[in-house]
Amino acid sequence: MTGRLVLKNVRMLEGNAADIILENGTIKEIALPGTATGDEIIDYEDKVVVSSGWIDMHVHAFPEFDPYGDDVDEIGYKTGVTTIIDAGSTGADRISDLVSSCENSKTNVFAFLNISRIGLKRIDELSDISWLDEAELRKAISEHGDFIVGLKARISKSVVGPNGVEPLKIARKFSADTGLPLMVHIGSGPPDIREVLDLLEKQDIITHYLNGKANNLFDENGEPLPEFSKAIERGVHLDVGHGTASFSFPTAETAKKKGIRFNTISTDIYRRNRVNGPVFSMASVLTKFLYLGYPLKEVIDAVTVNAAAWLHKPELGRIAVGDIANLTLFSIEDESTLLLDSEGEKRMADKRVVVKGVVINGEFIEC
């Protein structure tokens, strides 16, 4: 973007209005509302909120893999998300192909490297221990260290087969040897969720923490498991990872009642659940958390400040003069909206999040 673009009369998350001036792709100035001049002015008339660009910590963006694949920009900037993190679609065998497939995309992309060299070529990628090849994993990290932000281990019955918790023990060693934290998918057992929790450390991520499966993080009385509480105390990071089968309204309501708050909200989006639901988009997922009664700032912080902090990229989670502009513009519309979780539960919300536009690496795009 060249010239001087003014996003006029936008509402900041803190509640104040402002004019944001962009010049040559960077944030030049944050001015009092209605005062800025420029070559192009878009007046939002105090009806649109601006935040730093949304970050989705869990997507599947390798288009070749079915069903867990999609095109980067379809789940990225076109849905208001300026940065996505592919959550283990590829292992060492195909990570180079994932990198290549992202080269012409506008959306910023990083990835968790699947600890299985085959990645999601098969959905039982941890059923054969020989696919957990540390030499190949290290080679992939050495070649794509700027792209890889962590390691992904999907620890549920359909993935690990007869191996139980053993793949996670191997992943723990890989993490120690490489210095990269783990994102751990949880789901149906075996292994028992308590075995999984005991192996997680500070900065590791539990994704799908609000799933409604029998092997979840709460006991039959709705109390958080002791091992879950201890993991939170150790600094384990809680990520939503909505997905096709991993978000339950009853579980989310229990977690909120017990004070178990998310660190990040992510979609686990790919082509099928984007088109057919129940995910659809980041805006749809964020609408569910507004419905649950979380304040707007807490919800948006989960896809900006908190995600950027975990990535050690604070510039992606702020609006600051001098930074390359990555922004999401959205409104909160007063309209009835039917919401679906991953188990067929329905809720009716009276407000919904609607994306109006993004600025991605300095380029403004209306959505």
Task: Give an overview in words.
The chain is of the alpha/beta class. It folds into two domains: 4-51 and 320-366, Urease, subunit C, domain 1 (Roll), CATH 2.30.40.10; 53-314, Metal-dependent hydrolases (TIM Barrel, Alpha-Beta Barrel), CATH 3.20.20. It has twelve helices and 15 strands. The protein has helices spanning 72-75, 95-101, 134-143, 157-160, 166-178, 193-197, 226-234, 249-257, 271-275, 282-291, 296-301, 305-310, and strands at residues 4-12, 17-23, 26-31, 40-43, 49-52, 54-59, 81-87, 108-114, 148-155, 182-186, 205-207, 237-239, 327-340, 346-360, 363-366. The strands form two sheets. Strands 1, 2, 3, 4, 5, 13, 14 and 15 form an eight-stranded mixed β-sheet that branches. A seven-stranded parallel β-sheet has the order 6-7-8-9-10-11-12. It is globular, with a radius of gyration of 20 Å. The two termini are 17 Å apart. The mean pLDDT is 97.
Concise account of the structure shown:
It is built from twelve helices and 15 strands. It has helices at 72-75, 95-101, 134-143, 157-160, 166-178, 193-197, 226-234, 249-257, 271-275, 282-291, 296-301, 305-310, and strands spanning 4-12, 17-23, 26-31, 40-43, 49-52, 54-59, 81-87, 108-114, 148-155, 182-186, 205-207, 237-239, 327-340, 346-360, 363-366.
Give the helices and strands, then pairings.
Blueprint: E1 4-12, E2 17-23, E3 26-31, E4 40-43, E5 49-52, E6 54-59, H1 72-75, E7 81-87, H2 95-101, E8 108-114, H3 134-143, E9 148-155, H4 157-160, H5 166-178, E10 182-186, H6 193-197, E11 205-207, H7 226-234, E12 237-239, H8 249-257, H9 271-275, H10 282-291, H11 296-301, H12 305-310, E13 327-340, E14 346-360, E15 363-366
